[in-house]
Specification:
The chain has 356 residues and is α/β, with parallel strands linked by helices. The chain is 37% helix and 23% strand.
């Protein structure tokens, strides 16, 4: 990284905001200037803990010239308004996943940023761990042959207290959905990053344990990718005790299985010298339980790497790895899966508005 100092501020003072604050504090040429939340008590407590200013109004915070990048950590269905205000104030935006909960809102953010000439990024820290990057590299090098299956499994445990901890949780309007939109979307993003665009989905959803929420706590989807490969997504917050998330990519010439940030299988018909060192490097690479049963049990390392990627993009004029259009893709897939579950029919994806 260069020597330029980057000023940051955070909108929203929930659990994930603390992960952002720790990540920013760990970067030498980044400084956290402030926090704004509609709950002043929470933002005051946050500011005291993380040594920054608790702003009384969003406008006051956005007027500060020393702030370059805004991290938007509000509930999923309330990203649009703070994002547009930040963009119109000339600030770059790093938005917690999902980008928003409808494609229309996603497109409003993407278009506003394009018009204003600022950068947007969507937080998907799993893309920044070494195992995921090695898998993507092997995919780009066509080491898997013809792709056959791409599967994602997120089988987690969330308590009733988790859903009661915020009025927005477990609602269509503010959470955008249940286990898939909130917990599973990281794996949806990785799966489409590895396997390519999804052509169609067919799914079933259920609410088995959490009867007090509007949305699903369990969902299963079949996928057909545009390259001809098939796949499945299984996602739940209802199981005990929960398991590490897992992605399996299998082709005619190779298989990789990723459990959290750990490659547990890495095998190809044509081995390369680097394969042994990759497996040795990756063995036991997990640095947290990935939020299996506790949403706060995640490392800030992935966020740190993604924030540094955003700083690099701003400094060099390049695009961040997960920009707005890239972050939109997983939302499109999730919404198609929900539509299929509701209609009990196969749903084709349109891939509308792709800017790449």
């Amino acid at each position: 990284m260069g020597k330029k100092q980057f000023g940051f501020a955070i909108i929203g003072a929930g659990v994930i905001s603390g992960i952002h604050a720790m990540a920013i504090h760990s970067i030498e040429n980044a400084r956290l200037w402030g926090i704004y939340s509609i709950n002043k008590n929470k933002s005051d407590a946050f500011a005291a803990k993380y040594n920054c200013i608790s702003f009384d109004t969003l406008e006051e915070m956005l007027s500060r010239p020393e702030i370059d990048i805004i991290c938007i950590c509000t509930p999923s269905g309330i990203h649009l308004d703070p994002a547009i205000k930040s963009i119109e104030a000339g600030k770059h935006c790093l938005i917690e996943k999902p980008l928003e909960v409808t494609l229309e809102k996603c497109d409003q953010i993407i278009n506003a940023a394009h018009k204003a000439g600022v950068k947007t990024g969507v937080i998907f820290p799993s893309r920044f761990y070494e195992a995921g990057r090695q898998l993507k590299k092997a995919m780009d090098e066509k080491r898997f042959g013809d792709l056959v299956l791409g599967d994602a499994y997120v089988k987690w445990n969330r308590s009733a207290e988790y859903y009661k901890s915020g009025k927005w949780r477990g609602t269509w309007e503010y959470d955008g959905g249940g286990a898939l939109m909130n917990q599973g979307i990281h794996s949806v993003d990785l799966l489409q990053w590895y396997m390519g665009p999804v052509e169609s989905v067919q799914s079933v959803a259920a609410n088995i344990r959490h009867k007090d929420i509007e949305v699903e706590d369990t969902i299963v989807a079949n996928l057909k990718f545009t390259n001809g490969a098939l796949g499945t997504i299984e996602c739940s917050t209802a199981v005990f005790p929960g398991a590490l998330k897992r992605i399996e990519v299998m082709g005619t010439k190779g298989t990789a299985i990723l459990e959290e940030n750990n490659l547990i299988k890495w095998e190809f018909t044509r081995p390369m010298d680097e394969d042994r060192s990759i497996m040795q490097l990756m063995a036991g690479a997990n640095i947290s339980h990935g939020g299996v049963s506790n949403p706060a049990d995640i490392s800030f390392i992935g966020h740190k790497k993604q924030i540094e990627d955003m700083m690099r993009a701003v400094e060099t004029g390049s695009s961040p790895l997960v920009d707005g259009p890239e972050g939109r893709k997983s939302v499109e897939i999730v919404l198609a899966i929900y539509e299929s579950a509701r209609s009990e029919k196969m749903v084709r994806l349109q891939h509308r508005g792709e800017l790449k």
